[in-house]
Structure formats: structure tokens, C-alpha cells
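Hey L., structure's done. Input below.
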Amino acid sequence: MSQDSHRHAPAACPRCGRTLQKPTAWSSAWRCDWHGEVHPLLPAFSPSRDGLDGLLHRFELGTAAVPAWLPWPLPAGWLVAGFAGAGDERSGVRACAVALSGPNPLGGGPADMVVVAEEPGVGLGAALAGLDSVDPGAGFGSAPPAATACFGKHDFPLWHVDSPDRATFAGEVKGLWLWIVLWPDTAGALLIEPIALRDLRDPGQDLDLPFGAASPRLPA
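Output:
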């Protein structure tokens, strides 16, 4: 979908996917009938260089921005499968999702991964994890970390989050939530070793990204 098409595409709630009520003359907020004021989630950008450029362009429209995390190097045989963002032209992107697909390291068959960076309270990561809340929930972080994400010269602990039919890990990076959600749950074996991340916003990166089919895990 083109950048211009995204400006006119129906916005959805990042928590439940329902169509939102648009801002009015009395309020600049987008509203969900179930969840109140939310940051609008637009249909996913295609898994292509144009799709990535479309997502990054939205970072330039507001002052707020979150990372566009990409595991790099990609796991063997994995492909980039799309991008999504929640936010509007006034506030900028408040949540960013990068989708990937590839072979399940356990048992064979296909697997999916979505990596989400978001400000607290957006709820996109929790929704992808199949949770009703906007965060990992009560008791989060009380057990030892289950995985590690690496960015630059720093390691960030990730904790396992109970979620249905998938493997979910969450942690905090520079005041923002980092979620890594994998389907099926056995694909969580990819995080036995620390996962290195790149921020696709950073200039000067010459990454030859392999693109695949659009992920079914992102909004259509």
C-alpha cells in the first residue's frame, strides 16, 4: 500500500482491531468504542523497500518516534514479511511492528515472528500476544529473564509472558516496551541464544533485506 493510500485507509484500534471514530472539531483523539482514546493503527506496509520507506516516512511526520527493531542477522532462512505502525500525523509513530517469517527451528514447518517497539499504554504488543491488557500483566519481571536482546553494546533482559498458542517475550529498552512474539510456541527456541537487533531508523545502514510474502500476523 502506498504512503498516500495509508493516509486515507481506515484506522483500527491497536488493541482489538475495531474501526475507530475519527477526530472531530471538539477532540483531536481517535476513539475506539471499547477502549476509548487510542493511537490509530493503519494497515500494514508491504514487505518491500517501498513499504519500509513508507513506515519510516511516518516517523518524520511527528515529534515522537519509536525504534523499528529488526533482528540482524536474520535467522537462517527467514525473510522480512511487512511493517506496521500506530500513531497519527500529529503525534508521529507510537508503536512499530516488524514482521518476519521462516522455518520453525523445532519440528519444521513455517513460523512467524513480530517484533514490536511501543510507548507504554499503546497495547499493540499485548494484542499480538493475545492479551487483554496493554502491558505484560501482573507478576511480569518477577522471575529470572528468559532471553536477551542486544543493541549496540548493551544487553537487555526479556521475560517470558504467558500467552495462548505462541511464544511471547517482553522487556524494556530505553523506556519503551520491546515485544517479540512467535508462532507457533515452539518457535520460541530462536531466543535460546541472544537476539541482536538493528534500528531501521538509523542512517548509514546498508542492509540487503530479503523480503517474503506479507505476514498474516499484521493488520491486512
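Residues 44-199 form one domain. The mean pLDDT is 89.

-- N.
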